[in-house]
Amino acid sequence: MTKLGDAVARDLERRGKAIDQSRIERILLDAGVSSTASRGVPARLRVRRVWVTGEKLYSERPTEETPPAEMKTAPIKLDWQPGDGVNGVGSEANLRGKSSVLHFAIWALTGRSYLQADVETWVEHVSAEFHVDEVPLFVDFDVRGGMPSGTVTQKTRSGHASLGSFFGHAEFESLMGSVMLDRLRLDAISVFSKGTETEHAWPSYAAALAVHADKLDPIVGNENTLKTRILQMFVGTRWAAVDAQVATAFKAADYEREVLIEKRRAAASVTTSALRQAETRLREAEAALEVFDPTQPDVDAVFALASVASARAQQAHELSMRLMVARTALSGAEEQLRTEQMRRQAAEEDAVARRLFNGMAPKACPRCAAEVTAARYEAEVTAHECSMCKNEFTILADLDEASAAAVVDNEVEEPVDPLEALQAAIAEADVDISRLEGELREADRSRLDAENAAQRGRGRLGAARARLEAEIDLARAESALGALREAMRPEPSSPVDDERHLVLEVASRLTKKWVKEDQGPLLEAVSLAIARLAREFGSTNITAVTLKGNGNMDVEKGGAVTGYSGLTNGEKLRIKLAAAIALIEIGHSDGVGRHPGLLFVDSPAAEEIPEADLRTMLEAMATVAQKTDLQIIVATRHGRILSEVIGPQNLLVATGSNFVW
Fold it and tell me: 651 falls in which pLDDT band (50, 70, 90)?
């Protein structure tokens, strides 16, 4: 039985809503609520070394626009070992890298880089050494293409033990969160808002360790939504972590209940007349759709018919082109055949002429004196016989000799008769043309059918569109009616959810009461310390402050009371710095709190802090540091003042126009 579970059970019993205690414990356990609470005991975090290498690109006139050709490069050689107390990083000119030293350390500490984009690209390797309660931790990583990759190790008696490795920003941040939260005894902060639970971890705490002159709200940390939680954790309130867990679980349960109530409210707002109107609209839509013939093509079918007609037309066109090519080929073959036939006719006539007309033309046979008549001469051409001796002419032999000579000239082993080849080609072309003509006739019929169908479809396109609109109206009417009926359906109430909500509500009320009772005296002590430190930092007109549990503050100055938001930026800077140091002081003196005792202060003189007041603040911080276990790293362009107030072993100051690294 836990203290919180027992208190919730007794509270519910007094209210007449008793719930079995084992059930209460189960609800708290399922909600992720811790069963125990303890005061925060501070762990000490220190930066012991920052070592950075790379190559920087710089201008010798950083305040003026410099052409790229005049930019210069130089190696980065930063190796600094800050000590306890107040440390100073300074220069005597702006844009000399003082703030980047803080960002290098914070990058290694949190895994999250706040460097300027150009500076980040210059970095090749970072090594940092941190001490948590005097236990050394080492963070080493390379940077390639903007991606960090490296390891985190811890020094042991036998050497170094690896705590993990990482590649990329997300893994780096996750690893540092798991390493630091556990060692600094801090819990992740869960916040539930607008239906979403968000967990804030180590980077949120680490942001509260830095005081930037241009980020002075809120008093503790840099996020208004977390100021109360971070203040409770740093003050060391016993029930702070449990209260945060209960608050997150209760907000989630409350959100679920609000969603349920909203559904019921929506259901109640639906009137009977609205339902009847929706039903009437549905009937009208159904009637409108029934007017149309369901067998008629719809809009999609009409467009499909047009598409088919286009495809058939394309097919007919292609066949027409193939037929035209075939006919052209046939015409060419027929022309060649005629030419070959004429050539052969000429060859025969030439052969006869050579035999007949190149010889003698006797009137009578020289042997028997028989007369050679004109009819016998004429018969020589057709009968191929001599008009006198009746011997047969060797015309075909001559023609064969000519053909054989042509074959030899063409070096063709298998002689082909050109006449036969042409006749075969013509016959084949005739067959192809007949086939193509048949296919074209069929394609034309299909084209005409498709075009007629598409034309009829286009004629019914108006009706198809009207039918489509009627179908859409029907779908909308059905959807609207369905939504109304769903909204009117009563959401069943869950006794289990109601019980869970009730338990978490009581638990949240109890933990808030315990947190308030526990942190009241601590906040009073912190408030006294803040007022004292603010005066030591130069705000001598501030007589008292009251730091509230919600992170707000009343400030008495000049006889009037104002809030933190009513202060000047210079006063805010002093108060914010004083609040951080006061939390460390209380933790150091009373052993209560969770602030790790490390502060980064960036450019304090940028906000209405004159040089004299800056010197006063630095001297006051140095005095506090002598009495309190803390480490402060201040970056300012007033390097000369740093050198006058802080010892050389804690300084990293560039003189003149030199760079810090």
Answer: very high
| pLDDT > 70? residue 360 | no
Q: Is the separation of the CB atoms in 84 and 76 below 8 Å? A: no
Residue type, 405: A
pTM (2 decimals)? Answer: 0.63
Bridge partners for 140 per DSSP:
127, 151
* Confidence at 272, pLDDT banded by 50, 70, 90: confident
Q: How far is CA 617 from CA 320, 605, 640, in A?
A: 98, 10, 15
Q: Write down the H helix ranges in 270-298.
A: 272-290
Residues 6+ apart with CB under 8 A from 253: 31, 497, 500, 501, 504
Secondary structure letter of residue 358 according to DSSP: S
Tokens 């819990």 locate to 187
Q: Using the 8-state DSSP alphabet, how is residue 387 labeled?
A: T
Tokens describing residue 188: 């992740």
Does residue 491 register a pLDDT over 70? no
163-173 pLDDT, tens digit each: 999 999 999 99
In sequence order, which residues have a C-beta less than 8 Å from that of residue 529 and are 6 or more positions away?
578, 581, 582, 585, 586
Residue 15, CA atoms < 13 Å, CB-side half-sphere: 11
Q: What is the largest CA-CA distance in the chain?
A: 174
Tell me which amino acid residue 296 is: Q
Structure token pair of residue 579: 């609040």
Burial (Cβ within 10 Å: 0-12, 13-18, ≥19) of residue 546: middle
Tell me which amino acid residue 594 is.
R
**Of 48-62, 278-292, 395-409, minimum mean pLDDT range:** 395-409
Q: Token match 């074209």: residue?
A: 440
- CB–CB of 57/198 below 8 Å? no
For β-strands 147-156 and 135-144, DSSP reports them as antiparallel
Nearest to 175 by CA among 191, 161, 162: 162
Each residue of 77-112: pLDDT tens digit?
899 999 999 999 998 877 788 999 999 999 999 999
Top-ranked range on mean pLDDT: pick from 34-43, 211-220, 353-362: 211-220
Residue 263 token pair: 């559904």
Reported as a pLDDT band with limits 50, 70 and 90, residue 604 is confident
CB atoms within 10 A of CB 374: 9
Q: Mean per-residue pLDDT for 150-176?
A: 94
Of the listed ranges 61-75, 115-129, 180-194, the one predicted with least confidence: 61-75
Structure letter (DSSP) for residue 51: E
| DSSP annotation string for 164-177 | EEEESHHHHHHHHH
End-to-end CA distance of the chain: 59
CA-based angle 375:380:381, to the nearest 5?
A: 110
Could you tell me which residues come within 8 angstroms of residue 377 by beta carbon, excluding any fewer than 6 positions away? 356, 361, 387
Count CA atoms within 13 Å of residue 134 on its CB side: 1
Which residue, among 137, 115, 114, has the nearest Cα to 127 in the 3D structure?
137
Task: List the structure tokens of 289.
Answer: 């759709």
Contact 429, 378 (CB under 8 A): no
340: burial class by Cβ within 10 Å (0-12, 13-18, 19+)? Answer: middle
579, burial (CB in 10 Å: exposed 0-12, middle 13-18, buried 19+):
buried
Beta strands 72-80 and 631-636: pairing type? Answer: unpaired
Burial class of residue 418, CB neighbours in 10 A (0-12, 13-18, 19+): middle
Distance of CA 1 to the CA centre of its chain: 47
